[in-house]
């Protein structure tokens, strides 16, 4: 387990979690915010994206009161990403996350998760900054991130392909 904060815990992704990921990432209301409704996942796609990839992301499952409810990954930005975002140096981490169990939305768990992960990155990974790049239209996520101490830094035009269109994103950061 990476950390626990009250009823919330984050642990490394396990092989058996692929069934949860396939369930969550084939749910239209979840896909609206993560990956896009035109991009559902089956088990093969989950395997290729989450288990067969050779990337540097640390892939984790979010649990609340012992029940798996979502996914989070963290990674240190490489030089190309730092340059794209306008950073010259420093140990900068990014995260991507979603709560896949919709019944756990609007309960403050997202705020607890982002705050806890940010604390983990600064205390244990010795981050200088933590960054996120939510799509501009995703006001719900942006409000959560701002509540957690993140600030908008830079508009990233046409940064992410989502539902057939390149969408603008905000680069937001915490210097906690």
Automatic annotation (TrEMBL):
One of its GO terms (biological process) is response to antibiotic. Residues 8-176 form the N-acetyltransferase domain. GO terms for molecular function: N-acyltransferase activity. The keyword Hydrolase does not apply. The keyword ATP-binding does not apply. Pfam families: Acetyltransf_8. Keywords: Antibiotic resistance. This is GNAT family N-acetyltransferase. It comes from Mesobacillus boroniphilus.
């Amino acid at each position: 387990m990476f950390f626990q904060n009250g009823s919330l815990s984050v642990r490394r992704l396990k092989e058996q979690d692929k069934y949860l990921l396939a369930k969550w990432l084939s749910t239209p209301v979840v896909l609206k915010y993560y990956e896009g409704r035109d991009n559902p996942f089956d088990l093969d796609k989950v395997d290729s994206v989450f288990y067969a990839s050779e990337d540097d992301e640390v892939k984790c499952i979010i649990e609340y009161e012992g029940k798996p409810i979502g996914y989070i990954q963290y990674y240190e930005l490489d030089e190309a990403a730092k340059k794209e975002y306008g950073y010259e140096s420093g140990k900068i981490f990014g995260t991507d996350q979603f709560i896949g169990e919709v019944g756990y939305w609007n309960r403050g768990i997202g705020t607890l998760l982002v705050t806890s992960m940010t604390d983990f990155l600064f205390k244990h990974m010795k981050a200088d900054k933590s960054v996120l790049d939510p799509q501009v239209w995703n006001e719900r996520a942006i409000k959560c991130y701002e509540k957690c101490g993140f600030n908008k830094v830079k508009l990233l035009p046409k940064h992410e392909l989502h539902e057939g269109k390149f969408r603008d994103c905000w680069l937001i950061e915490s210097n906690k």
